[in-house]
Every structure is written in C-alpha cells, then in structure tokens.
Amino acid sequence: MPQGAPKMVLVVDDDPDFLDFVTIVLESGGYIVRTATHADAGLERMQAECPDLVIVDVMMSYELDGWAVSRQMSGDPQLRQVPVLMVSAIVDASDASALPRNGRVRVDAFMSKPLDPSTLLRRVAELTGAES
User: Fold this and answer.
1) pLDDT of residue 102
2) Distance of alpha carbon 33 from its chain centroid, rounded?
3) What is the distance between the alpha carbons of residues 66 and 85, in angstroms, rounded to a whole number?
4) Model pTM greater than 0.90?
5) Residue 34: which of 50, 67, 62 has the closest Cα?
6) DSSP letters spanning 112-123
7) Which of 4, 18, 65, 94 has its CA 20 to 30 A from that of 85?
8) Where do the domains of the chain lie, and which CATH numbers do they carry?
9) What's the pLDDT band for 4 if we cut at 50, 70, 90?
C-alpha cells in the first residue's frame, strides 16, 4: 500500500476487461485509478488531472497508439516527467530492450499481458515512488 497521499494512475487501453482488471488490482493496493478507452481521451484526462503514472497499451484500435501517447507526453512540459508503463499482449518481455528510449518516445517500464497482479503492484510502486 502506498505511503502518504494516494498516488493516481491513469490507465489507457481500449479493452474494457483489461481496464476493469487493472482498476481492481490497483485500487486494492491503495491507488486512485482513472481510465480512458482511447489515446485522445487519455491525453485529455492527463491535462485535466496530471497522474503520477500512466499505463498505456502499445496497440489500440484508434488513430493514436501507446507510442503516440508517449511522444505527446514528452512534448508537454506538464506531462514529460510522468512515468510511462507500456503494456502489450503482442510484444513479450524479452523484446523490452528494443523499445525506443529517446526524448521523443518515453517508456520507463514495459510489461507483457496478461499482467500478474503482484508484479503490477510492485512495478507501479517503483514507478510512482510509493512504498509497497
């Protein structure tokens, strides 16, 4: 459970079952969870209330994907310091080293779906600076 004020996590994914799963896991760990079903809505929500962490799917069935979200966050002074946890059902963890790591596309961590709840909580705690 996070120490101090609860950390807010924004989850951006077009799969409602995944959003429900992550919300249940993170809320059980004491996090405040916000969700968005597509990248545009996620970016709007980030502007409205800056999260402590963004979890975003690599591939979504909309024009903007996780890479585009990360690029736009990197270009925004308010959002460029927000950690990004990229998730995907297509890429496995062994491919994480191939993820772009430059100023235009920021990925602080990668996890492959399906996510293990305890690993997710541990990773979120690391990325938000919360004590687990």
Assistant:
1) 53
2) 11
3) 10
4) no
5) 50
6) ESSPPHHHHHHH
7) 4
8) 8-127 (3.40.50.2300)
9) confident
Q: What is the pLDDT of residues 7-52, one digit of tens each?
A: 999 999 999 999 999 999 999 999 999 999 988 899 999 999 999 9
Mean pLDDT, rounded, of the chain: 85
Q: Where does residue 74 fall: left (phi above 0), alpha (psi -120 to 50 degrees), or beta otherwise?
A: alpha
Write the DSSP assignment of the chain as a string of letters.
--SSSPPEEEEE-S-HHHHHHHHHHHHHTT-EEEEESSHHHHHHHHHHS--SEEEEES--SSSS-HHHHHHHHHT-TTTTTS-EEEEESSS-GGGGGGS--SSSS--SEEEESSPPHHHHHHHHHHHHT---
Q: Which residue from 85, 78, 91, 90 is spatially nearest to 26, judged by alpha carbons?
A: 85
Both tokens of residue 55? Answer: 């979890």
